[in-house]
């Protein structure tokens, strides 16, 4: 997810590093002392500065609170004064900043990465500490653990977000017009027509951040790969320079429908503004995942919204929910503070405190220690899963997802044609292959 490259990326990285937020919950003048091991109870406390990188600035207050609890626990139990510096850049350029940091041997002690998109390449590059023997691993649900496990069986991250997603819809608007989530593209067109006839904008468009229009790709590709015989091996063929995105041409049917029936000034509206607009009832549907639930409900606690599968064609079997594990926490292999970093990861799944943390973030249960009830929108998605209408998020390289986000911004603005988008995506995947083979 990036919008700026080259010099601008470097400038952004420098400015963000200089101004990263600091939670002074330990010794404000603490020095980095390496693998600290203070004695609890008596004696001089060890001091550690722990650096974290998590691209979720909208959730900062919840991280700050949990970090404060952790530093108090670390002081009480191990007599270690921990100062946490948490850097929270926006999602659109976070991946590029993190890659630059890792490649220049300036890795944060703990950093967030996308389990499906990033773990294979980051592990291959030697950036990820092996966490297989950590206590939290035994708490992970069997359905979640594979997403953070490498092909050679090592657990290298702690999952935070597991996702069941398609698009969000305003349940009250649908109920008032006796509408139900459509199962085909033709049915979606009928829903759009009825909403328009009642002066309700069908779709909220928020394309200012390129990662948002990028969401069309995993939804369309995942559905086609899992329902069209000709596309079953699409990922493998693309990885061998044998396929082309022109095979996915039908994905523009739903893209064009959404773009033609959405809110104005899409390229001026980002994720947070989109969440506020959706919460305020500015549109009936938003191509977005439930990871924005906390932000939406903060704007309008009474909003009744659901998750539904996006139809991409007239094959009802292809209207499926995307299952994924995204934001996950890893420990840098080069960290000089591994003991404290590992303590924090294990605290994220603390038997007592983890429930409240995950509930505050509006994340799904991912461990045996999580006893809180699933959210209504999770139950919506689960109905699709129970009916066999779901698929695992396709393993599309992050570089390709970054490219499609920018290209679909340009397509919306009338600056690129469909064929030009396909050619750009083919080129991006081939470039990825050259570097990673």
From TrEMBL:
Q: Could you tell me the superkingdom of the organism this chain comes from?
A: Bacteria
Q: Which GO terms describe its cellular component?
A: ATP-binding cassette (ABC) transporter complex, substrate-binding subunit-containing
Nucleotidyltransferase as a keyword of this entry, yes or no, is: no
Keyword Ribosomal protein tagged: no
GO biological process terms held by the UniProt record: maltodextrin transmembrane transport; maltose transport
Q: Which UniProt keywords apply?
A: Signal, Transport
Q: Which PROSITE patterns match?
A: PROKAR_LIPOPROTEIN
- A Pfam cross-reference name: SBP_bac_1
Q: Which GO terms describe its molecular function?
A: maltose binding
Q: Which residues form the signal peptide?
A: 1-23
- Name the protein family: Belongs to the bacterial solute-binding protein 1 family.
| Name used for this protein in its record | Raffinose/stachyose/melibiose transport system substrate-binding protein
**To which species is this protein native?**
Paenibacillus phyllosphaerae
């Amino acid at each position: 997810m990036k919008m700026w490259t080259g010099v601008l990326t470097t400038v952004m990285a420098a400015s963000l590093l200089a101004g990263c937020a600091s939670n002074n919950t330990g010794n404000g003048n603490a020095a980095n002392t390496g693998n600290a091991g203070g004695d609890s109870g008596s004696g001089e406390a060890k001091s550690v500065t722990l650096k974290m990188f998590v691209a979720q600035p909208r959730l900062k207050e919840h991280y700050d609170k949990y970090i404060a609890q952790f530093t108090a626990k670390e002081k009480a139990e191990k007599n270690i004064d921990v100062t946490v510096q948490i850097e929270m850049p926006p999602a659109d350029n976070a991946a590029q900043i993190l890659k630059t940091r890792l490649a220049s041997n300036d890795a944060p002690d703990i950093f967030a990465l996308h389990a499906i998109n990033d773990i294979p390449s980051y592990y291959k590059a030697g950036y990820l500490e092996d966490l297989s023997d950590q206590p939290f691993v035994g708490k992970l649900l069997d359905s979640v653990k594979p997403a953070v496990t490498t092909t050679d069986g090592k657990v290298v991250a702690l999952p935070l977000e597991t996702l069941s997603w398609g698009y969000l819809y305003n349940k009250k608007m649908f109920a008032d017009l006796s509408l139900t989530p459509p199962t085909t593209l033709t049915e979606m067109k009928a829903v759009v027509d009825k909403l328009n006839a009642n002066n309700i904008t069908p779709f909220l468009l928020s394309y200012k951040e390129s990662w948002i229009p990028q969401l069309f790709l995993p939804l369309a590709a995942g559905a086609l790969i899992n329902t069209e015989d000709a596309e079953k091996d699409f990922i493998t063929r693309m990885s061998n320079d044998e396929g082309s995105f022109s095979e996915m041409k039908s994905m523009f049917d739903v893209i064009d429908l959404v773009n033609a029936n959405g809110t104005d000034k899409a390229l001026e509206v980002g994720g947070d503004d989109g969440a506020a607009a959706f919460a305020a009832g500015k549109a009936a549907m938003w191509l977005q995942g439930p990871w924005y639930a906390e932000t939406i409900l903060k704007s309008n606690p009474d909003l009744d919204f659901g998750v539904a599968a996006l139809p991409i064609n007239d094959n009802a079997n292809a209207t499926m929910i995307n299952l994924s594990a995204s934001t996950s926490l890893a420990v840098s292999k080069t960290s000089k503070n591994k003991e404290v970093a590992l303590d924090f990861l294990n605290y994220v799944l603390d038997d007592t405190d983890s429930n409240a943390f995950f509930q505050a973030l509006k994340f799904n249960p991912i461990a045996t220690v999580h006893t809180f009830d699933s959210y209504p929108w999770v139950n919506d998605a689960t109905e699709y899963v129970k009916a066999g209408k779901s698929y695992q998020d396709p393993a599309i390289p992050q570089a390709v997802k970054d490219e499609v986000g920018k290209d679909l911004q340009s397509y919306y603005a009338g600056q690129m044609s469909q064929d030009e988008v396909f050619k750009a995506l083919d080129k991006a995947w081939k470039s990825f292959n050259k570097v990673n083979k």
